[in-house]
Design a protein that fits this description.
Elements: H1 2-20, E1 21-23, E2 26-32, E3 35-38, E4 46-47, E5 53-54, E6 59-62, E7 67-72, E8 75-79, E9 84-93, E10 96-105, E11 108-112, E12 119-125, E13 130-133, E14 137-140, E15 144-149, E16 151-155, E17 161-165, E18 168-171, H2 184-188, E19 192-193, E20 221-223
Parallel strand pairs: 10-12
Antiparallel strand pairs: 1-9, 2-5, 2-7, 3-4, 3-6, 6-9, 7-8, 8-11, 9-10, 12-13, 13-16, 14-15, 14-20, 15-18, 16-17, 18-19
């Protein structure tokens, strides 16, 4: 009798855990040109089609002149040409939606919609920096961030952070060593005011298309949030 009671309690706990942490998948809504994806690093590349479901851990890759639109949770993501993006975390937990994406190369546009009673934790990482946002609009080229409105927290490769508000910009230098002394954070992540409308966007150039032949170059990320 005691064994059955313990088993019942464990089963209820597992059901509660599943209910409070629902793993999501991304749905392909639009495809233009050559777009491929694979479910995991060990899986083969497949041609993407409207309606395909990309599970957690999947990578999507776009060729020259191609574009794909993904939807997951409360986010719409447009993956631009010559881009490769990995879905690392898409989970809705009790009171929050956690999204963690890795952009290996290329450019994306994202719209994150507010949901009543849910906190949106949206994070996108490149090789040099991480942008962590909660409902905002900003421009990100992998190193520099210009905030149009809202608040963005930027982490560099030394895990030092800077919070940037609307009308400001910051950068996370690529190869500079950590400065010594009290000016460590100021040198590493300098917040600089800028004039809206004067944004400079440096478009990354890559060689190759989708699939394993894609080579990385300089990056540009652009996000739009409502």
């Amino acid at each position: 009798m005691k064994y059955r009671t313990v088993s019942l309690v464990l089963s209820l706990l597992l059901l509660c855990a599943a209910a409070t942490a629902a793993q999501q998948s991304a749905t392909v809504r639009q495809v233009h040109g050559k777009v491929e994806y694979r479910d995991s690093a060990a899986a083969a590349w497949r041609t993407a089609a409207v309606g395909d479901q990309l599970p957690l851990g999947a990578t999507i890759s776009t060729g020259f002149g191609a574009r794909a639109t993904l939807e997951f949770g409360y986010t719409t993501l447009v993956v631009e040409a010559l881009s490769r993006l990995t879905l690392e975390d898409l989970v809705e937990r009790a009171g929050s939606v956690d999204t963690d994406l890795r952009l290996n190369v290329g450019r994306v546009r994202a719209e994150v919609r507010d949901a009543a009673g849910l906190e949106q934790n949206f994070r996108l990482r490149s090789a040099q920096a991480t942008a962590s946002v909660r409902g905002t609009e900003f421009i990100f080229d992998g190193v520099n961030v210009q905030v149009i409105s809202g608040i963005v927290t930027v982490f560099n490769r030394f895990n030092q952070s800077s919070t940037v508000g609307g009308g400001e910009k910051t950068s996370a230098p690529e190869d500079d060593p950590p400065p010594s002394g009290g000016d460590y954070l100021e040198q590493l992540l300098a917040v600089i005011p800028y004039a809206p409308g004067s944004e400079e966007r440096e478009t990354g150039r890559t060689d190759g298309g989708s699939g394993d032949g894609l080579l990385t170059g300089s990056l540009e990320f652009v996000y739009y949030f409502c």
